[in-house]
Amino acid sequence: MASVSQGAVARPTNWVSGRNSLLDRYFYLFMSLVVAAIVVWGFSFSINDNLFHPAIPRPFLLWIHGAAFSEWVAFYILQSALVRTHNVKAHRFVGWFGVGLAAVMVVLGCVIAVIMTRFDAFQLHQPDPTFLSIPFFDMVTFAMFVGLAIYWRRKPELHRRLLLIATCALLDAPFGRVLYIFNNSLFYPFLDAVILLGVARDLFVDHRIHKVYRVAIPLMMVFQGFTIYLWRGSPSWWLKTCQAILG
After folding, report:
1. HEC sequence for 137-166
2. How many domains in the chain?
3. Residue-wise pLDDT tens digits, 88-99
4. What residues contact 53, with CB distance under 8 A and at least 6 apart?
5. What is the pTM of this model?
6. Rounded to the nearest 5°, which phi and psi values hold at 39?
7. Domain assignment of residue 153, yes or no
8. Which of 120, 129, 140 is nearest to 236 (CA)?
């Protein structure tokens, strides 16, 4: 018994991978900061000309939209920090604020998509009605994964992965502010690459890919491809639908 005990004490600890490693304990907090960094970096390419000092003033609702989505990033960082510091009660209490915020964001996201598409067409003379497929898909994806995260809020292994995917689903907006990425329709691959960091975490820590990723990522990629097709391919039925929505 003594020899077994001594062997257990002498066993080296892996601080990088495996359960209770640094990667296991700090991954989701780290990812919340990565998301914030991507948002700041991406919008730095356009926010000055498009919001702070535009040649043609943007609709006021765009400011509300930006504030709400910025609040979500701050909310995600706070929630990740609360879990990391074991403040579970505070995490659950603040979580209900996130539920309300997410609902507002979905409505705002759809409304501002229509408003800004009209603005681009009539004020900037840059009509692109079929682009509505992008923000509409984003809002559906965000709403679906947040809804599932709420439903499985008492199952942390599901909850935290679903919230990560939901938050990353919004990252095509900052990635799309980079002209090369936007012009080549690469914002979804960049977004997916961020989610794949969660897959890498699972492989290092759990030595397997969680079922949330195994189901969600392939489905997202399929629908992302279809969404890009609706935008770039502009099939007649989708163009007519968008024109009807825009009025």
Report:
1. HHHHHHHHHHHHHHHCCCCHHHHHHHHHHH
2. 1
3. 999 999 999 999
4. none
5. 0.90
6. -60, -50
7. yes
8. 129
